[in-house]
Amino acid sequence: MFAFSTAVDAFDLLLQAVNVKYSFVIAVTLLIYDTIISLPDEINLIWSQCWSFGKVFYILTRYLNFLDTATILWYSFDPKLTIESCRRLYETGMWLITIGITICHVVLVVRTYAIWERSHSILAYLISIQIATFVIEVFQLDQAVKSITFTPSPVPTIVPCIPTLGNNGMFRVFCIVLGFEGNILCLLFYKAVSQWRRDSTPLIHALYRDGFIYFAVLFAISLSNTVVVLKFFESPYYYVTIQLQRVFHSILASRLIIKLRKVMASKESSLILSNLIFERFPEDSSVGSSKGA
């Protein structure tokens, strides 16, 4: 009876690990799909433009995601991995995800700073909480990944190894991310309400609506990830949404940059949005034909 119960538990863990593997595949598919459909805008608004802050961060935001995705796929699909290999790949993937999300947060910080009309007090506040968030996140993540136990898979051709958390440090990591994004969302919402009342134009409506939707989606995904980690602390399901969270940060942050570039390229927005962009067009060239952004 004990042997039967143990076998059932092992099968249940394997099934959970397989479902997590499917979530990785979904995340990769979503990333590739969005990259393909965004390519025309990317060529026109990013690659054909001069090098700038926005261009560098777009490339990091969009394409660094492929590196951690490749690491996670290697971890999920290579049947020859040993327990130690699983640990190294898993830790590498988690650190890459953390760095990637932090870079996306920089884009959100710059966006919020611009919306607040380049307020130095807001910038100081945002930089302070981002640095504090990153430092605490690094410490908590280091403790969490060291506590993970990797169990050999009964069917390595399906799942190479099965991880389980040794402590709840991962939950604290995502709580920190959630708190940071909650701050950003509140600042955006407050400014959007006041700006909406003062400059009630279709352009302002579209700009704030899109920005708020992007920020709200990121916050909702981070909240879902936090709940999942807490609920499935002792099963492989604890990391079922981690890669999805990373992919959504990459997609929405890069789309935010493209959206700003599109707005800058329209004649209607050339005067209204001087404080809501990453960089300005040269003054001696027309907005419609500028290549300086």
From TrEMBL:
Transmembrane segments: 20-39, 60-77, 89-110, 122-141, 170-190, 211-230
Source organism per UniProt: Schizopora paradoxa
Domain DUF6533: 22-64
One Pfam family here: DUF6533
Sorted UniProt keywords: Membrane, Transmembrane, Transmembrane helix
Recorded superkingdom: Eukaryota
Name of this chain's protein: DUF6533 domain-containing protein
